[in-house]
Write a structure and sequence with these properties.
The complex is a heterodimer of chains A (about 775) and B (about 280). Chain A has about 775 residues and is an alpha+beta fold. Chain A has 19 helices and 29 strands. Classes of the chains: A alpha+beta (about 775), B alpha+beta (about 280).
């Protein structure tokens, strides 16, 4: 571990703010991680999945002697039925195995149980499904058309959730506009593609009837609650463990039917049952996201000041609604956060979630924000062109500059640096030098483009934010237990469930500063419902803010008690005690005592504290903050090959403000990874359905995440504006990279397309689509 | 994603291998060489061969030598063998340049030249190379040995003239003239992906004019092939932009493009025009 030095934050923090190496990495990089699929099992499951997107099941013929579970076996199991109490939400139930009806290709119809994965797959090949297929609805616009078949009886017109907002006085302001600028944006469907696909292992304990479900999840406690509810079992009879998890990105925060079935099977067989998803299943049948049509209009005054926004969001949510967020997560976030970082007082929006015969939608890093940011940022660039302004200038005129700022949808933006990060990015990228280079290149038949994206990133929001959506479950607060054992080592048990975010390190840094110890004396325990306090897990850029805040609260309590113990043992006033370097010291003297000996004393010599201090050294903290907004400006420079439509991202720069940074290396890593996924979203990744509802991109040759070769170097610049809405002063930053990249890349592509008078407002902007846009522009020109 | 059950057979000699193939071909037996295409297809259960005849230990199939007229490439020769020059002829540089575009490094370490031809993916770089340069395929079976010209070998998407009991034992790739020029270009969305179009060109310059032009196009039609119209546009012309553009246009007009969910015929023609011209431009570098 690096030698401690004073932090650069202007306060007494020694460890917070330092790029110490991640405590979780030695095990992971030496192959010593523990993953679900590593566990041995007696029984293995293979799911037989529907080859049809819509239809009724006539029969399921299973080979003689095979153990095959179907819906008929699961009559006592409830359907997964998430709930929103607002926005005309229509509850729809998802059976654990398709019950008479199939609603998307890949829906699990039967579960084959065998003694190995191979044997289960062999038997699954022999299961014959007799399905009367009907014409599926694949595109959300088709599902909205009048007379379209109804996918769930409870959701007429296939609209499952509908949000509407219109500010008072909207119409008058709209009518007063000097210019109305419009964009029809399309975001195609994507898959979060965690490196580890889903996996579950359920073990029945004959001594007590309990089941331990080890699974790759972001939310172990909620999995326990949900599965116990569905199976009608006591929650205390189910233990859920999230071991090392190879990425989640939101895909692993939703409850999947497969995990429910595994627990049911372990109880039925009184044995150990495992399932490891393959990549094809993950691509067709886990969860999808980002399938949206967004039409956005902006009303500007004569000085290009944005007066009003009007949006129509159609989100294709697939065949069912995901638990716990519900499928409102995309359309409602789009509605609430569309105005982004701009000062705009008038807003109207209609946002609908539409059921189709496709894989169910769930949250994916950034949720709707990569789409709405790309849409809004394209709108600003179009407006800049219409007003003959530089894209930077129009942003300067419209970004929020005074705080706190209450948005048109009622969100309260805490202090941020929208304008400052823009100026920082403009300075670092050197726009005049780029424009000169761009001009020179064009003369040689090479087409460069620059694109800016400025955005706000709502992070670390607690229960009220979820309650505002009317969610039946409001995953907001977090609890942390911090204890010092009798040998002086510290353990933090947390309800969050990190899976790559480095929380074992950053929380240790927070505790280290409070207790005056190095972070490697702190062990962070998570991902086991038997040992961690109830919590909501890790998602939505929340863990460092919320679990970090709870950690700070608990650590401060431990610190206070340590000072009391030291005061007793050193016979000094509490005010004179300082905790540093693993000791309590009496300021201005050479008297000190180690934290280890104080800990031993409070456990083993309690009588010495004369009843004034409770035995033991263990405290709890709970935190439920209102939320805080990070912000950033992304800049992409691309080279576009007009002959092939190929786009190379040549340079990528991020100027970002996420409040106090606990560990700069981990923060940078979050941005790097996010930008990689955002570039994938912008250029490469697309789940393609055919007209029959079959998926044409069911492997990683056809579904294309970026590889190292496609990634530019990402230059990072930080501003730190300590948050007043977060007790650690940190803001979340898990999603910003992904949120900003599609907008920056698409604006850069369109800048490069300027000489051709062509535009593209679709992600991913594939070479095929870019060539089509160029061809259309040429046709228009010659017409 | 586990393959269906199969039996793996490991012959040590060519005779054993051919005997096994003769016996097992009718029972859904297949040759396994590098396995870089077959094994993933088996994992998806798109192929379920009952028998795999693993030729990785067959003696003599690792031949890679030249008789001064042609380079002979045995069935066990891996893509990676061409990472460096294999013969004292311009062909060596051509093969080295092309090999770099085949998938990714680990795949090149395992996959084989002949396996790629027998698999006959339309986008395969080696299929394009053999079709363009006029290779001869040596097919062996217990019934004897057959020589098949490249132009007669490829028979559509993942289909060849090989009979089910025939092993593609060797390929003879003619050496290039000492003064030959070559160029290669391919287009894919990510590094290492299957080419959406590719082109290999070779020609000589005689009296400042192009002669003996070969223009091959891959990835655009069910099988790679030489495009006579493009060759005609080059022969007799001085190498340079005008001839290259004419040849590229001729090639894009001549192909009957494959279409898929992301690529219509129009776009594929765009790509053919670009890769042919860029391959020709590459020949001058």
């Amino acid at each position: 571990m690096n030698a401690p030095t004073k932090g650069s934050r202007g306060d007494a923090l020694k460890w917070v703010g330092r790029a110490i190496r991640r405590l979780e990495d030695p095990a992971l990089v030496t192959g010593q991680g523990h993953f679900t699929a590593d566990l041995p099992a007696t029984h293995w499951v293979r799911f037989v999945r529907s080859p049809n997107a819509a239809g009724t099941i006539n029969s399921i013929k299973t080979p003689d002697g095979a153990l095959v579970i179907t819906a008929a076996d699961l009559t006592a199991v409830k359907k997964i039925t998430p709930m929103l109490h607002k926005f005309e939400y229509k509850p729809v139930g998802q059976p654990v195995l398709a019950d008479g009806v199939v609603r998307f290709v890949g829906e699990a119809v039967a579960a084959v149980v065998a003694s190995s994965e191979e044997e289960a797959e062999d038997i699954a090949d022999l299961v014959e499904l007799d399905i009367s297929a009907s014409a599926p609805l694949v595109d959300a616009r088709d599902a909205l058309a009048s007379g379209a078949p109804q996918i769930h009886t409870g959701a007429p017109g296939n609209v499952i959730v509908k949000g509407e907002v219109k500010t008072a006085g909207f119409d008058d302001v709209w009518a007063s506009a000097a210019k109305i600028i419009k964009i029809d944006a399309r975001s195609h469907r994507q898959n979060a593609t965690p490196m580890e696909a889903r996996a579950a292992h359920a073990a029945y304990d004959k001594t007590n009837g309990r089941v331990t479900l080890t699974c790759t999840t972001q939310m172990p406690h909620l999995m326990r609650t949900a599965i116990a509810d569905l199976l009608g079992m006591r929650e205390s009879d189910l233990r859920v463990i999230a071991p090392d998890v190879g990425g989640g990105f939101g895909q692993k925060m939703s409850l999947c039917t497969e995990y429910v079935l595994l627990v049911w099977l372990a109880r039925k067989l009184k044995s150990t049952v495992a399932w490891t998803e393959d990549r094809r299943e993950n691509l067709i049948a886990s969860f999808h996201s980002r399938d949206q049509y967004v039409t956005l209009e902006g009303a500007f005054d004569k000085d290009a000041k944005l007066l009003a926004l009007r949006a129509d969001v159609v989100s294709n949510v697939g065949a069912y609604s995901c638990f716990p967020t519900t499928c409102g997560v995309e359309p409602l976030m789009a509605m609430a956060e569309m105005p982004g970082p701009y000062d705009v007082r008038q807003y109207q929006c209609l946002a609908r979630g539409v059921l189709t015969n496709t894989c169910t939608m769930a949250a994916y890093r950034g949720v709707s924000r990569p789409i709405i940011t790309f849409t809004l940022e394209r709108l600003m660039d179009k407006a800049a062109k219409a007003f003959a302004l530089d894209p930077v200038d129009i942003r300067r005129r419209n970004l929020i500059g005074t705080f706190p700022y209450t948005s048109a949808t009622g969100l309260i933006y805490d202090e941020a640096t929208y304008k400052e990060t823009l100026e920082m990015a403009v300075h670092e990228i050197d726009v005049p030098a780029f424009r000169a280079r761009q001009k020179e290149a064009r003369a040689k038949g090479r087409y460069l483009g620059i694109g800016f994206a400025t955005f706000s990133e709502r992070t670390g929001y607690g229960s009220p934010a979820f309650a505002a959506r009317g969610m039946a479950i409001t995953p907001g607060w977090e609890t942390v237990h911090v204890s010092v054992d009798p040998s002086g080592y510290v353990e933090a048990r947390i309800g969050a469930s990190p899976h790559g975010q480095g929380l074992r390190t950053t929380l240790a840094q927070i505790i280290a500063d409070e207790l005056g110890i190095p972070p490697d004396l702190v062990k962070v325990v998570h991902g086991d419902t038997d040992t961690a306090p109830y919590g909501w897990g890790t998602f939505a850029s929340r863990s460092l803010v919320i679990s970090g805040g709870a950690t700070l609260i608990a650590a401060r309590k431990v610190r206070a008690k340590l000072i009391k113990i030291a005061s007793h043992m050193l016979e000094a006033a509490e005010n004179d005690i300082v905790l540093e370097d693993g000791h309590a010291k009496v300021a201005g003297t050479d008297r000190s005592i180690t934290i280890a000996s104080m800990a031993r004393e409070i456990y083993t010599q309690t009588h010495r504290f004369k009843g004034e201090l409770e035995p033991g050294l263990s405290e709890s903290g709970t935190y439920d903050p209102p939320g805080t907004f990070s912000n950033a400006c992304h800049v992409a420079i691309v080279e576009l090959d007009p002959e092939t439509g190929f786009v190379k991202v040549e340079r990528y720069l991020v100027a970002e403000d996420a409040g106090r940074i606990i560990n700069p290396m981990i923060a940078d890593g979050q941005v790097h990874g996010g930008v990689a996924q955002g570039i994938g979203n912008a250029l490469l990744e697309e789940i393609v359905y055919d007209g029959d509802g079959g998926i044409l991109t069911a492997n990683l040759a056809d579904y294309m995440p970026p590889t190292a070769h496609e990634m530019p170097h990402v230059e990072l610049h930080h501003i730190e504006t300590p948050s007043t809405q977060s007790i650690t002063k940190a803001k979340g930053l898990g999603e910003g990279g992904t949120i900003g990249a599609p907008a920056a890349v698409l604006n850069a592509i369109n800048d490069a397309l300027t000489p051709f008078n062509a535009e593209i407002d679709t992600i991913p902007a594939t070479p095929q689509r870019i060539r089509a846009a160029l061809r259309e522009a040429t046709t228009k020109k010659s017409a | 994603m586990k393959p269906a059950p199969f039996v793996r057979h490991v012959p040590r000699t060519l005779q054993q291998a051919l005997a096994m193939l003769s016996q097992l071909a009718g029972q859904d037996g297949r040759i396994l060489a590098g396995g870089q295409s077959l094994v993933p297809i088996m994992a998806f259960r798109l192929a379920k061969p009952a028998h795999l005849i693993d030729i990785n230990e067959v003696e003599g199939l690792d031949r890679l030598d030249s008789d001064g007229k042609a380079l002979t490439i045995g069935a066990r020769v891996r893509h990676a063998a061409f990472h460096g020059p294999v013969v004292d002829n311009p062909l060596a540089a051509l093969l080295t340049y092309v090999a770099r575009h085949i998938a990714h490094y680990p795949i090149r370490m395992r996959g084989t030249f002949c396996g790629s031809l027998a698999h006959a993916d339309p986008a395969s770089e080696w299929c394009l190379t053999t079709a363009t340069l006029g290779a001869t395929m040596i097919a062996r079976s217990t019934r004897g040995t057959r020589e098949i010209a490249a132009k007669d070998f490829f028979d559509g998407i993942m289909s060849t003239a090989l009979a089910e009991d025939e092993l593609l034992a060797e390929v003879r790739l003619p050496l290039l003239a000492a003064d030959a020029k070559f160029g290669f270009n391919e287009f894919s969305r990510r590094a290492g992906d299957f080419a959406m179009a590719s082109s290999l060109v070779a020609y000589r310059v005689v009296d400042s004019k192009i002669a003996e032009a070969r223009v091959g196009v891959g990835g655009a039609e069910p099988s790679p092939r030489r495009i006579a119209e493009a060759e005609a546009a080059l022969n007799g012309q001085p190498p340079g932009d005008a001839a290259f553009r004419a040849a590229a246009l001729a090639a894009s007009d001549a192909v009957d493009p494959l279409e898929d969910h992301q690529t219509n015929a129009e776009y594929r023609r765009d790509l053919v025009r670009v890769v042919v011209r860029r391959a020709l431009e590459h020949s001058l570098q």
